Model the fold of this input.
Amino acid sequence: MTSPTDIELDQLAARLGERLRAARDSVVTAESCTGGWIAKAMTGVAGSSDWFDSGMVAYSYEAKQALLGVRPQTLESQGAVSRETVIEMVSGALVHSGASVSVAVTGIAGPGGGSDDKPVGTVWIGWKRRGGYTRAELFHFDGDRDAVRRQTVAAALRGLEAL
Done:
């Protein structure tokens, strides 16, 4: 998989914004490995104040707990990069915002930090609609830190389009 360009990310964000505006939805992000890049892509779209509610960067265990309500037991037993953690992140983002949809990402962008079970490029993305379903998907992206993060942003935006 090739890493998306800035132009491609801008196009994805603009298309998503049109859909959110038409549906009268608003979005909140909860980001770890992307460090706010999803929110940056969305707020780079002119008029995004019509549909972008807020974004949270929760990198540490403590921030995930304080900002998003991730349970310490989840982090201890499953780790930050897990289905359980991303579900708690995406749910917590909605609890702490006025948005109608949310996206959360947690992963290992590298170059270090990977393991046999969770190699560099392992990313969990979660999406949730308020009062609706939660979806979580595991990705394995290739490339350096920038490439993993770019692919994560693109996948997160595409997943929001499908909500």
Observations:
- The mean pLDDT is 97.
- The two ends are 23 Å apart (CA to CA).
- Helices lie at 6-23, 37-43, 61-68, 72-78, 83-95, 145-161.
- The beta strands are 27-31, 52-57, 101-107, 122-129, 134-140.
